[in-house]
Amino acid sequence: MENRLLILLSEEGAEAEHVAELTTYLREELLDLDVEDVSAVPGEEVPAGARAVDVTQIGSLLVTLGTSATALNQVVTVIRSWLGRCQDTRPSLRLTLDNDTLEISEATDEQITEAFDIFVQKHSTVGAQP
């Protein structure tokens, strides 16, 4: 069974284009890792003529971790680094793996590091061969 990490990126009051740009940058960095795939989560089809955009769908990525025991740690390290480079804004993140969700919003760098470390430790067997 493949383990998948769902990443939801959002920013209060942000334009859809800005969230899409941030998501694209994060996806490009994650694709350089030892993971099976990083894909955008397809949103619901917008009815013809509708102008509403679901920003949560724009900022959604699904990372297929594969069999590497270190994949989750690599992904979290990249996310932490990427988040640290978001100088002008501080997007909120929600990571979901195996019905466990970690939400990061308006946290200090130290709080983010601690939360990510706990999340990785909790799922340290993800992707490990039995």
What does this structure look like?
This protein is α+β, with helices and mostly antiparallel strands. The chain contains four helices and five strands, in the order E-H-E-H-E-H-E-E-H. The protein has helices spanning 16-30, 55-58, 71-84, 109-122; strands spanning 4-10, 37-40, 60-64, 92-97, 100-104. A five-stranded antiparallel sheet has the order 2-3-1-4-5. Strand 4 (92-97) and strand 5 form a beta hairpin. Helix 3 packs antiparallel against helix 4. Residues 49-53 and 126-130 have low confidence and may be disordered.
Indicate the topology.
Layout: E1 4-10, H1 16-30, E2 37-40, H2 55-58, E3 60-64, H3 71-84, E4 92-97, E5 100-104, H4 109-122
Antiparallel strand pairs: 1-3, 1-4, 2-3, 4-5
Helix pairs in contact: 3-4
Can you summarize this structure?
This protein is an alpha+beta fold.
